[in-house]
Amino acid sequence: MSADSVTRSGRSLPGGGALISAARCVTYNQSNLRAAVQQCIGALPDLQRVFAEAERVLLKPNVLSSWQGPEAHVNTHPGVVRALGEILIADFGCRIAIGDSCGSLGHGSTARALERSGMEAVAGEIGAEVYNVDQQPRRTLRSEGSVIFKDIPLPANLDRFDLIVSVAKLKTHLLTYMTGAVKNLLGLVPGAAKKNLHLLAPRPDEFATALCDLYAALPRSVAVIDGVVGMEGRGPSNGALRRVGLVAAGADPVAVDSFCAQVMGFAPLQVPLLARCAQRGLGVAAPEEIQVVGEPAAAFAPTNFARPPTYAATLAADLVPRWLVRRFISAFNTTYARINQDICRQCGECERNCPSKAIFFDEESRTYHVNRARCISCYCCAEVCPHDAVEVAPSMPTRIKEWIKGKVKR
Ligand code: SF4
Ligand code: SF4
């Protein structure tokens, strides 16, 4: 088996399983981070081989927010990117670029995000290139193997990298349950094309399939996770912070995400993206097939890690047949976005980033609203709202449950 096919299938162990590593790191102290990343890489011969074979490496952190700094923990911490970059340069002789396309549309938003997140400074310090995905020439990759995402807009020069390292943040996600190494690669799709994927694949299960298409079409990637401080509940932008103390790595991003799912309290095969990747032979998601060097998931798992409020509705939509979802369940069981007028400051960022044009400005009341009929529950609006004014309106069963609870209390 070639190194590339090992990386793609994730099955690097003799019995066909995947090997990943996890190290404890409770602060963003730079020497602790470096030791943790070094420990993770040092435990994985297959990952070392991949790094040794790569000359030009793109580090792809989560740089979702264009206005928040590292203290918000929405983006990957720059210290983790720095530790990894330094090790790849010193120990493997790699040439490094650091890049992403952020979650907000608008002129200069990714440049701002790379600066605010600390990535630009790290690049300067370690001698890496800043790779602003939005500013690269583009091409459309025709992917015949795709189920949904067949014409994939990408930077035209992405193939100058031998390897992509997805340096993702450990966070929950309103649409996909979790943001992991595989989901993080969506940031290689520039600007508005990223948002438009929600129109092509509006349902959570379709979106997972489209992300899986993208993952299959991209050059090979490996994973490093910043879970020193993670995010629970209303991630990827507005959740609560939890100190998890984890750095994880592996040559199979699906296996690393499966481990992270367990840390967050999800059954990995119930995460639609991981299930699809495993079905298509793009990695190992079943926990019993993953060998962890270092501490097991249970050693990191914080108790009561809050799931996203969309979890039950998304899971139900993924489990029932599509025709049933379309006709009956979706009307009854979906959550949708709602603007809290007491918090909203009328900045219009949500309207600019809504792919289905469901958000409108009411001239009379001078307030923004969501047209529920148009809302596809992608939560791009919640991701970009700088004031945390976008709420998840609970599904009908949740509203009924809450109503009953209220009656019983009285
Ligand atoms: S909901 Fe948030 S993003 Fe939208 S207008 Fe209000 S403050 Fe701005
Ligand atoms: S209103 Fe928000 S959740 Fe609904 S489609 Fe627009 S961005 Fe997505």
List the helices and strands and how they pair.
Elements: H1 3-9, E1 18-24, H2 30-42, H3 45-53, E2 56-61, H4 78-92, E3 95-100, H5 109-116, H6 119-126, E4 129-132, E5 138-142, E6 151-155, E7 163-173, E8 177-179, H7 181-184, H8 191-200, H9 204-217, E9 221-232, E10 240-250, H10 253-263, H11 272-279, E11 290-294, H12 297-300, H13 311-319, H14 322-333, E12 336-339, H15 349-353, E13 359-362, E14 367-370, H16 380-384, E15 390-393, H17 396-409
Parallel strand pairs: 1-11, 2-3, 2-7, 3-4, 7-9
Antiparallel strand pairs: 1-10, 5-6, 7-8, 9-10, 12-15, 13-14
Helix pairs in contact: 2-4, 4-6, 9-11, 13-14
Bound molecules: iron/sulfur cluster (2 copies).
Can you give a write-up of this model?
This protein is an alpha/beta fold and 410 residues long. It has two domains: 3-300, Rossmann fold (3-Layer(aba) Sandwich), CATH 3.40.50; 311-409, Alpha-Beta Plaits (2-Layer Sandwich). Helix content is 38%, strand content 22%. It contains 17 helices and 15 strands. The protein has helices spanning 3-9, 30-42, 45-53, 78-92, 109-116, 119-126, 181-184, 191-200, 204-217, 253-263, 272-279, 297-300, 311-319, 322-333, 349-353, 380-384, 396-409; strands at residues 18-24, 56-61, 95-100, 129-132, 138-142, 151-155, 163-173, 177-179, 221-232, 240-250, 290-294, 336-339, 359-362, 367-370, 390-393. The strands form four sheets. Strands 1, 2, 3, 4, 7, 8, 9, 10 and 11 form a nine-stranded mixed sheet that branches. Helix 4 (78-92) packs parallel to helix 6. Bound molecules: iron/sulfur cluster (2 copies). One iron/sulfur cluster binds next to helix 15.
